[in-house]
Each structure stands twice: as C-alpha cells, then as structure tokens.
Design brief:
The protein has two domains: 94 residues, Aspartate Aminotransferase, domain 1 (Alpha-Beta Complex), CATH 3.90.1150; 238 residues, Aspartate Aminotransferase, domain 2. It has 14 helices and 13 strands. The chain is globular, with a radius of gyration of 20 Å. By secondary structure, it is α/β, with parallel strands linked by helices. Helices cover 42% and strands 17% of the residues. It starts with a strand and ends with a helix. Helix 3 crosses helix 10 and helix 6 packs parallel to helix 7. The strands form three sheets. It has a seven-stranded mixed beta sheet with strand order 2-8-7-6-5-3-4, with helices on both faces. The chain binds pyridoxal-5'-phosphate.
Length: 339
C-alpha cells in the first residue's frame, strides 16, 4: 500500500466521479456550446455571488490570465515572497505580461495591509514601474496551508481602493480555508476583483480551474485564454468532474485537516524532528534534525511506502487528500512512530 503525501493533486477520480464524467452532455466550448462547461461556470459564479466565471485547464493559466487582465507591460505586481504566482509559475508574470514582482516579506505567505502600504511606490514618479495589482494566496502553499485573517484581507482591499490597484486572489486551495475558518465564498466574492480556484487539488477532480469576476473582466479573460492557447473543445467531461467535486468533496476537507493535525501531533513526538510549522489545513511542514541526512531519510520513508516532498534544507512537506484513507493514516502514524 503506497501512501502518497506528496500533494493533494495525486488523487484519482472516484468511480462516482468517473460515472458523472461519462454521462456529461458536451459540445464545443470554444464556440461556447458545451452545456456542462456553461453549467459549471454559472454554478461557480453564483456560488461566489460574482457575475461570471471561466473554465481553465490549470490554476497557473487562470492566475496568468488574471495578471494579464489587470496589467500593462512594465507594471508592478505586489505579492508575498512565497507567492505561487512569483515562485512556481515559470516566471509567467514576466513572460506573459511583462510585469515586475515586488515581494513583501510576510509570515508563512501572508502580509499585512501596513506592510503593503509601506512597499507601495508612487505612480507619479516616472522612474518607477506603475503599481497595478495585488495578489494574495489563500491558503498559502509554500506557507504550509496557512489561512489569512479575513479582517486583514478587508484592510488590504481598502489600500487597493485608495491606490487604484486590482485585487486578485489565488484561491487554488480556497475551499480548505473556507472549511477551516467557516467562511463563505460570497465573502470572498464581495472583496476581490478576480478569484482563481482549483478543482484538481483537495477537491479531487482530475483537471480544472476557474477564474471568477465581472462579466466585463471574464469577456476580456476569454480573449486572453484563447491567446494563451487555453481554449478546450468537449471540456464538459472535465467540467462534470468539477461539478461532482463541488457537490461532494468540499465539506469532507475537514477530515483531511483533522488527519494533518494528527500527523503533526505524531511528528512532535518523533526524535528525528527539529520543528513543525503550525497546521491549519491539509499541509504539514516540518524540519529534520540537522544531524539527519535528508536524502537517506526520504529513501527510508520510501522503502516504507510513504512518499513526501523535500522543500530543501531538511524542510519536508506532507499533504493529505481524499485518497489518503483512514487505513493509510493509521499505518502512516504507526510507521512514523517506529522510526
Ligand atoms: C497548485 C497551485 C496553483 C495552480 O497550479 P496548477 O498546477 O497550474 O493547477 C496556483 N496557486 C497555488 C497556490 C497552488 O497551490
């Protein structure tokens, strides 16, 4: 039994999800004619109380289109130093939009409105790039699944309004935050200009992300998606998986969060662990004692059928998900305790 805790993207569609996919009514979505894609887009827009949504093959493309939508080449984007849009999208902000990233030195991927205000540069100085967008990420990926304080997000919104900045949320794992903090999608819909969400992370769909915003923004996003090569044809088969995921796999994220907390508690009693970062959702990051060789530790875990990921310098990550069963969980705890 392989226990794969590398990411919540390793899940495979369940029988029920596959059956929903097989029964999907499809059409050519590049002509806007796929009824299941249209149904998903409407469902997600309504869920967030926003005007429109657009289906994407990946979260990266949804974020990159959002950045393109809100900026002109030469502009400046503000984000945390841990941000996915800066670290893990292949330099896309620079490549696709010609945008410079200004990195804020936050805590576990989260900064404050005061920090943002301090780093903002004035738009009336011709030497400086024009500030045009702020991106935040909830939950934070490199920050170990941390959730933002919603009051702080509101304060950041005020800074955005005052300085005429677009406000984008990379919500690849937003549903984890909603479940953990008992928040609603509508709260976020009211606050942000655009939101990207992923169905292929904790929600367990094989493929799929959406960008959500105003009708005007989504009309523009449709053109940019085409330009980026993201138009898909009978995408309704994928949209059906996304609809199934939204209807069945949101509330159960709490189970992943509970298991992750239990993994952290177990790690706290292991003599190979130096330190564990706080656990809020489905990610646990821990540091090996400096006397332990990371590569041989990972090899040993692999021999015991437990897969996790290295973030460098003895920093390791485990992510729980819907294919991580109760049986695997008991086994994993037993193995960790035995090392
Ligand atoms: C996974 C992820 C994305 C999008 O990733 P894709 O693999 O392109 O779908 C974006 N932002 C964050 C924070 C992520 O974790």
């Amino acid at each position: 039994m392989e226990i794969n805790l590398i990411s919540d993207t390793v899940t495979r569609p369940s029988k029920e999800m596959l059956s929903a996919m097989m029964q999907a009514k499809v059409g050519d979505d590049v002509f806007g004619d796929d009824p299941t894609v249209n149904q998903l887009q409407e469902k997600v827009a309504n869920l967030f109380g926003m005007e429109a949504a657009l289906f994407f093959p990946s979260g990266t493309m949804a974020n990159q289109v959002a950045i393109k939508l809100h900026t002109q080449p030469g502009d400046k984007l503000y984000c945390d130093k841990y941000a996915h849009v800066y670290n893990f999208e292949g330099g896309g902000a620079a490549f696709n939009s010609g945008v410079t990233c200004s990195l804020i030195d936050g805590d576990r991927g989260m900064f404050t409105a005061a920090q943002l205000e301090k780093s903002l540069t004035p738009n009336d100085n011709i030497h400086l790039p024009l500030s045009s967008i702020v991106c935040i990420e909830n939950t934070t990926n490199k920050g170990g699944g941390a959730c933002w304080d919603f009051e702080e997000l509101k304060k950041i919104k005020e800074v955005c309004i005052k300085n005429d900045l677009a406000y984008h949320l990379d919500g690849a794992r937003l549903f984890n935050a909603l479940v953990a903090k008992k928040e609603t999608p509508q709260q976020y819909g009211k606050l942000f200009d655009t939101i990207s969400i992923c169905l292929s992370k904790g929600l367990g769909a094989p493929v799929g992300s959406l960008l959500i915003g105003t009708k005007e923004h989504m009309a523009k996003a449709l053109r940019i998606r085409k330009l980026f090569g993201g138009g898909m044809r009978q995408a309704g088969y994928l949209a059906a998986a996304a609809i199934y995921a939204l209807d069945n796999n949101v509330e159960r994220l709490a189970e992943d969060h509970q298991k992750t907390k239990e993994l952290a508690t177990t790690l706290a009693s292991c003599n190979f662990v130096e330190q564990i970062e706080p656990v809020e959702t489905n990610i646990v990051i821990f540091y090996l004692k400096s006397t332990i060789d990371e590569a041989s530790f990972l090899q040993k875990m692999k021999e015991k059928n437990i897969l996790m990921v290295s973030m460098g310098d003895g920093k390791l990550r485990m992510v729980t998900h819907l294919d991580y069963t109760d049986e695997m969980h008991s086994k994993c705890i037993e193995i960790l305790k035995s090392i």
